[in-house]
Write a structure and sequence with these properties.
With about 220 residues, the chain is of the alpha+beta class. The protein has one domain: Glutaredoxin (3-Layer(aba) Sandwich), CATH 3.40.30.10. Helices cover about 55% and strands about 10% of the residues. The protein has a 5-stranded mixed beta sheet with strand order 1-5-4-2-3, sandwiched between helices. Helix 2 links the parallel strand 2 and strand 3. Helix 3 crosses helix 7. The protein is globular. About 5% of the residues have low confidence. It is found in: Periplasm. Belongs to the thioredoxin family. DsbA subfamily. It holds the Pfam family DSBA.
Length: about 220
C-alpha cells in the first residue's frame, strides 16, 4: 500500500516538475527591460556599438555568433554610435559608412574585425578618412566602388539614421553605454545579468525567448 501511494505521489509531482522546467528562467527587470510599447514590423536584433569601445571589441565574436544563429527571418543590425571621445564625430561617421559599404558588399564582419584590430590590437588609430579607405581596400574591395558608395545617398542616409536612433535612445536614457542589444525595438538586454562563462549560449537563449514574446 505504501509503495502504491509513493508511486501515485511521484506521478502527481511529474506535471509540476515539467511546469518548473518549462518556466522561463529570464526575468524582466533583471535580464531585460521593456523600453517601448510596440515591437518592430519585422523581427530584428540591433546592436549599438562603437569601434572605439573596448567592450564592443571583446563582444564582437559573441555578436557575430549571435547574428549567424538567429532564427530564419530575423535580421541582425549593427548601429555605430559617435559619442566615444576617442575620435571626432566626423571620423566615427566615416567608420559607420565604411562598415555599411562593406556589409552591402558581403564583407561586413571581415571589415569590422579589421577595424577593431587596427584600433585595439595594432594601437594605430585612424587619423582621417583616407586611413579607413586604405584598410578597407586591403579586403578585396574595389577602390572606385568604395569611393562611390561612401558618397552615395543610401549610405549617407543609413549613417544619418544611425545617428538619429542614437540621439533618440540617448534622450530617453535607453542608450547609456555600448555594447547594447535591443530585440524587436522593445526589449533591452542586460548583458551583465547573463553568465559571463557561457555568455554566447545564454544570450542566444534570451534573444530567442524575447523574439517569441510577441509572436
Amino acid at each position: 500500500m505504501k509503495k502504491l501511494l509513493s508511486v501515485i505521489a511521484v506521478a502527481l509531482m511529474l506535471p509540476l516538475a515539467a511546469c518548473a522546467d518549462s518556466a522561463p528562467k529570464f526575468e524582466q527587470g533583471k535580464h531585460y527591460e521593456v523600453v517601448a510599447e510596440q515591437v518592430t514590423a519585422k523581427p530584428e536584433v540591433k546592436e549599438y556599438f562603437s569601434f572605439y569601445c573596448g567592450g564592443c571589441n571583446a563582444f564582437e565574436p559573441v555578436a557575430q555568433n549571435l547574428a549567424k544563429n538567429l532564427p530564419e527571418g530575423v535580421e541582425f543590425k549593427k548601429v555605430h554610435v559617435d559619442f566615444i571621445r576617442a575620435a571626432s564625430p566626423e571620423l566615427q561617421n566615416a567608420l559607420a559608412r565604411a562598415y555599411l559599404v562593406a556589409k552591402n558588399l558581403g564583407k561586413g564582419d571581415q571589415v569590422a574585425n579589421a577595424i577593431f584590430n587596427q584600433i585595439h590590437r595594432a594601437r594605430a588609430p585612424f587619423s582621417n578618412e583616407n586611413d579607413i579607405r586604405n584598410l578597407v581596400l586591403v579586403h578585396d574591395i574595389d577602390g572606385e566602388t568604395f569611393d562611390k558608395a561612401m558618397k552615395s545617398f543610401s549610405i549617407r542616409g543609413a549613417a544619418n539614421q544611425m545617428k538619429k536612433e542614437q540621439d533618440e535612445l540617448s534622450n530617453r536614457r535607453v542608450l547609456t553605454g555600448v555594447p547594447l542589444l535591443i530585440v524587436n525595438g522593445k526589449y533591452k538586454i542586460n548583458n551583465a545579468a547573463l553568465s559571463q562563462r557561457n555568455l554566447s549560449a545564454e544570450l542566444q537563449q534570451l534573444v530567442e525567448y524575447l523574439l517569441q514574446k510577441d509572436a
